[in-house]
Design brief:
The chain has about 210 residues and is mainly α. The chain is built from ten helices and no strands. It has one domain. Helix content is about 70%, strand content about 0%.
Length: about 210
């Protein structure tokens, strides 16, 4: 496949991922979510600051853009009669690009979310069974600990681990999943610090003030 096609996949997926739904929903309510709660634009902070309906909407939209990036890439390249191996490579590239767009959006000075929902959406198209395992891990950890961050970190470990176990032959997919997992854990470094300090917010706690540890 021509290199130009790969470049277009990267740019298209990145720009789709860079749509900051959490920021836009909060802005519509007159709130700059970057100065409220943890300051993150993702669904968890949106739920704490804006309430459950808004948080769920942000979660779904962040997941949808991940899924849409991979799906659109697949549909367009298949209609161009691109070889199946090249399409799969481009799909994985679209997956990592859409997450990078979410985590480092160009519209907010390259600051964004933590990528859990968008990664989940992308891998719904790339490795749906691995996503199912990751969701189970997330739910169990949140129920046991009452910390969304613990569930998210567990998910960041469970997803690539499951992909390595289930599809070891697709080395590129395994490596990308691992890199995204490491990036997700890195993006949770402030949460890890708060967990260690005992100041992390538990599920159900609503806040509008910036967290001291942020």
């Amino acid at each position: 496949m021509p290199i130009l096609n790969y470049i277009l996949v990267v740019l298209g997926a990145y720009l789709l991922g860079s749509i900051p739904f959490g920021y836009l929903v909060a802005k519509a309510k007159g709130i700059d979510i970057r100065t409220a709660g943890s300051g993150n634009i993702g669904a968890t902070n949106a739920m704490r600051v804006l309430g459950k309906p808004a948080g769920i909407f942000v979660l779904l939209m962040d997941m949808l853009k991940g899924l849409a990036a991979v799906w659109l890439c697949t549909e367009i390249l298949q209609r161009m009669n691109i070889a199946a191996a090249d399409v799969q490579t481009a799909r994985v590239i679209a997956g990592i690009s859409v997450v990078l767009g979410h985590n480092y959006t160009c519209w907010l000075r390259f600051k964004g979310g933590k990528g859990i929902a968008t990664t989940g959406g992308a891998f719904l198209a790339l490795a749906p069974w691995a996503v199912l395992v990751a969701i189970v891990v997330f739910v169990l950890l949140v129920l046991l600990t009452k910390y969304v961050s613990v569930g998210s970190i567990g998910t960041a470990i469970a997803l690539p681990t499951t992909i390595w176990v289930m599809t070891p032959s697709d080395l590129f997919l395994c490596i990308v999943a691992t890199l995204l997992g490491v990036m997700a854990i890195y993006k949770h470094k402030s949460n890890i610090q708060r967990l260690l300090a005992g100041t992390e917010n538990r599920v159900g706690k609503k806040t509008s003030a910036p967290e001291a540890a942020k």
